[in-house]
TrEMBL record:
Keyword set, alphabetical order: FAD, Flavoprotein, Monooxygenase, Oxidoreductase
Domain FAD-binding: 8-206
Presence of the UniProt keyword Oxidoreductase in the record: yes
Membrane-spanning parts: none
Gene3D superfamilies: 3.30.9.30, FAD/NAD(P)-binding domain
Native organism: Aspergillus avenaceus
Protein name: FAD-binding domain-containing protein
Family: Belongs to the paxM FAD-dependent monooxygenase family.
Alphabetical list of Pfam families matching this protein: FAD_binding_3
Lineage: Eukaryota, Fungi, Dikarya, Ascomycota, Pezizomycotina
């Protein structure tokens, strides 16, 4: 009996945004044997705020999970870019037309809402998707024609076991074992590198600031606010139906304790955090002071050089495993979600289930996604450099652009809010692209 693509055994390594999207999108395409391996005991549903751009919303809607996410999110209609030290507004960008232009609004939400709704979507296909929590992928032993890896249960009473599949999708994040093994096999030198930047992620609940009218107004707004200063910035917005204010900071990686490579995170010092932004305006300092002592966490921001390939034989990399990005365009999760949607469609279009055809289909996924993802990685890094200027001619030129923007002229130096950049990011339909160009790229 001839096998169809939907008969393929597919192993997804990692249950982050990319891995969950892979599993759900594959199930929607009719794949019946999808196994997801995740080292955590469960998804945890933790994290901070996340931006839900139209290119993400479009995919999530087609996967049947957008309505639940949208119901808990906040619709952003404007962004204010401000000088950190004075709170003076450098630019104000209206975003009311985003839904009209791209079919979906620009919303912001809580990461737990996004992950939770994706997981609930997967559970609707419980006969097709099986989750293996508390299971670490120790090594990828083969990339094809039947890729295999060693799965290690965290329960020491259970023995490690070997898993074989027809396709392996490495959605195992910036610390990806799949990427390391693939690049070693191909003799390609690559490695994670520090960006010399770190981030605090902060959630302030409305009841904490109920006696602070300025902050209550921010939580009740539909606005993203960015405060910028030399080598630092804070981006903030309300989430969870305007009940929580989310702040994400970027600053030089000076206070980070000696964290292990396994976590990239460490408990931070509230005193140190307040010192980093000590020259910012009183309102920002007041906001940061609401963070309870002992609840300060700092993240190292790391990336790696662009990879020559994301695919080897019947194995492909997904999301941060192949294109980790700085957060200045707020597209990290969106790009992982695009990956998952595209790879599912590419595999569903297979003319046969031979290993050679699987490799070609995975190369179609790479063709649709790779240039776009790396363009956004570069753009995010460039936007961060522009935001963090401290003095000199470059800052003067940037501030002239902000001044021109107030007169309705020219581009936005903060590329996340620039209309041309939004058109390029939000207007691209990754699923349509792979559907329309599959045959061309496959051949």
């Amino acid at each position: 009996m001839t096998r169809t693509p939907q008969d393929l055994q597919i192993a997804v390594l990692g249950a982050g945004m990319g891995g969950l999207t892979c599993a759900l999108a594959l199930a929607k395409e009719g794949f019946r044997q999808i196994d997801v391996y995740e080292s955590a005991a469960d998804l945890g549903f933790v994290g901070a705020g996340i931006q839900l751009a139209p290119n993400m919303g479009r995919v999530l809607d087609r996967l049947g999970v957008w309505k639940g996410i949208e119901a808990e999110a906040v619709n952003i209609v404007e962004t204010s870019i401000r000088e950190g030290s004075s709170n003076d507004e450098l630019a104000h960008v209206h975003m009311q037309t985003i839904r009209e232009l791209y079919g979906y609004p620009h919303m912001v939400g809580h990461r737990s809402s996004l992950a939770g709704n994706l997981y609930e979507g997967c559970q609707r296909y419980a006969d097709q998707i099986r989750f293996h929590f508390n299971t670490t992928v120790q090594s990828v032993d083969s990339f094809g024609p039947r890729p295999s890896f060693t799965a290690v249960p965290r329960d020491s009473s259970q023995m490690p076991y070997r898993v074989e599949a027809d396709v392996v999708l490495g959605a195992d994040g910036i610390k990806s074992q799949t990427r390391v093994a693939m690049m070693e096999k191909l003799g390609i030198e690559t490695g994670v590198k520090d960006t010399d930047q770190a981030a605090y992620r902060i959630l302030i609940h409305k009841d904490q600031v109920k006696d602070d009218p300025e902050l209550v107004d921010l939580i009740n707004s539909n606005q993203v606010t960015r405060w910028i200063g030399e080598k630092r910035h804070i981006i903030a917005y309300p989430v969870s139906n305007n009940t929580i204010y989310n702040l994400s900071t970027i600053q030089p990686d000076r206070n980070f304790a000696a964290a292990t490579n396994a976590t990239y995170t460490t408990k931070g010092s509230k005193k140190a955090m307040l010192g980093v932004f000590g020259d910012f305006c009183p309102m920002v300092r007041r906001m940061l002071n609401y963070v309870p002592e002992g609840e300060v966490c700092e993240w190292k921001l790391r990336v790696h050089e662009p990879l020559m390939t994301w695919v080897h034989e019947s194995t492909a990399l997904i999301g941060d495993a192949c294109h980790p990005t700085l957060p200045h365009l707020n597209q990290g999760a969106a790009q992982a979600i695009e990956d998952g949607a595209v790879v599912a469609i590419a595999l569903s279009r297979l003319p046969d289930t031979s290993p050679a055809s699987i490799t070609k289909a995975l190369k179609v996924y790479e063709k649709v996604r790779k240039e776009r993802a790396y363009t956004l990685v570069d753009m995010a890094a460039a936007s961060g450099r522009t935001l963090h200027l401290g003095s000199g001619a470059a800052k003067a030129d940037r501030d002239k652009q902000f001044a021109a923007l107030k007169e309705g002229k020219g581009p936005v130096p903060d590329k996340w809010a620039d209309a041309d950049v939004q058109r390029m990011i939000y207007g691209f339909d990754c699923q349509k692209e792979v559907q329309e160009r599959f045959e061309e790229y496959f051949q």
